Amino acid sequence: MNTITAPATASSAGRSAAPAPEERLKITEIFLSLQGEALDSGRPTVFVRLTGCPLRCQYCDTAYAFHGGQWWSIDAVLAEVARHGVRHVCVTGGEPLAQKRCLALLRCLCDAGHRVSLETSGALDIGAVDPRVSRVVDLKTPHSGEMDRNRLENLRLLAPHDQVKFVLCSREDYEWARAMLRKHDLASRCEVLMSVSFGQLAPVDVADWIVADRLDVRFQMQLHKLLWNDAQGR
Question: Where is [4Fe-4S] cluster bound in this sequence (predicted)?
Fold first, then answer.
């Protein structure tokens, strides 16, 4: 079952007062769906989408999360996640690490027994993320429009349970990603994912390039787009 939750206001969460600012995060939505990409693709997952992002990738499909949202306490987020009754949780955005309380949320989700992944642009430091979290770092390609925002220092922090993702818009993007893969020996550090920007590049072309070059990567399609297109909360 897929749901989009109502914002956690003081009344809806059963509190007499709003949480202190240092205990809050701004949330665009919390919903249950299938994970559409990365290694847990196809698994029922609760998504916690934080509001705000300092990047403006030309292919972004969640621009609605740039602004707005509602303030939630971490306790309210944990309760809403638990209500859905699944183990896997994905904290996403926007750019979730742009909110400093994201680190505490990730830690609390792990403490609650969830298997947690973090979808991050890689433009911000991932070093303080709880080591139990699988960090899915999206390295921005030339045609994303945000390549200069890549924080390459993050690459040496990657662990085997982390993932690097390349979203490709062109042959140039593919060749750049291939060069990054080899230069930084990414496949020996973590899982490497390649996918296409939906509608901008033929998936069969990327699949053929990967096979021809015998790259040690995992090609992926965005399952949620194939099933529901760009429906919010899916």
Answer: 53, 57, 60
Q: Is 169 annotated as a binding residue?
A: no
Distance from C-alpha of 59 to C-alpha of 1, rounded to nearest angstrom? 28
Residue 122 assigned to a binding site = no
Question: At which residue do the structure tokens 């859905």 appear?
Answer: 84
Range of the domain at 67: 21-227
Which has the closest alpha carbon to 40: 139, 119, 132, 155?
A: 119
**Coil, strand or helix at 68:** coil
9 within a domain of the structure (yes/no)? no
Residue with tokens 């890689």: 122
**Total tally of structural domains belonging to the chain:** 1
CA distances in angstroms from 132 to 135, 159, 172, 173, listed in the order given: 9, 10, 35, 31
Q: Does residue 49 have a known ligand-binding role?
A: yes
Determine whether the annotation assigns residue 60 to a binding site.
Answer: yes
Q: What is the CATH number of the domain that holds 217?
A: 3.20.20.70
Interval 182-234: pLDDT, tens: 999 999 999 999 999 988 999 999 999 999 999 999 999 866 556 656 666 65
| Residue carrying the six token digits 């430091």 | 125
Split at pLDDT 50, 70, 90, the class of 13 is very low
How many C-beta atoms surround the C-beta of residue 229 within 10 A?
A: 10
Task: Tell whether residue 125 is among the known ligand binding residues.
Answer: no
**What is the pTM (predicted TM-score) of this model?**
0.87
Asked, for residue 32, whether it belongs to a domain, the answer is yes
